[in-house]
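re: that chain from earlier
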Amino acid sequence: MSLLTDLDRGMLDLVFPRDCVVTQLPMDEQGMLYLSEDGAQQLERINDPRCYTCGHPFDGILEGDRTCPHCLDLNPAFNRAVCAFRARGHIRKIIHEIKYARCPFLIDDLVSVAIEDALIRRHLAGAHLIPVPLHQEKFNQRTYNQAERIAEIFCQKIPGCTWSRGLIKIKPTPSQTLLSRSERRRNVAKAFQVSPTAHISPNVRYVIIDDVLTTGATLHACAQALRQAGAIHIDAATLAHG
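^ sequence. v structure.
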């Protein structure tokens, strides 16, 4: 492991042993660096039944249509989104650390656990991944885009995946956190466009990548921009839903 990688994973790692981000117990000798096997088992996965469009989990037994009311209202421009975990409990805490506590290295282990799901592997295989972009002002503050790292690690682990910065965010928007469903949609409307250097093909299947799907408004706005540029086959994937 290079010094730059060590620095990326946190200066304290150079001096102190790591603890599992979930159990807070010392890591044992295994493949992952910040998530133990016991910790991974405590992450709340999304299993079927789930909304076929946005991946929203349905509790209990579902009969008939597998489209949730949120998607019927939004009518998203992407075909299908698949999400690995519910965005609550340990997952919510980890994603908060990734986004706001300068811990992008935690993404690597989350992706490793996420792709244990065969549906996610099938959903991403052979696709071209496009991460949701940050506006330049936000990027300058954070210095990294967590969606880009998610896409990069997916491509390292899923055969046939490629990724690029195919979209740019052309206007800054307030945080979506405290906004209602309709406010979120208005907030990101026309906020994205295809990068001038991107080549969008109607023959390629694109998968928009983000950390969390809440209402689907951001992924919808990104998919609209891709469709306007000629994309036909557009899906989405996130680490968490909620």
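Confidence is low (pLDDT under 50) at residues 1-7.
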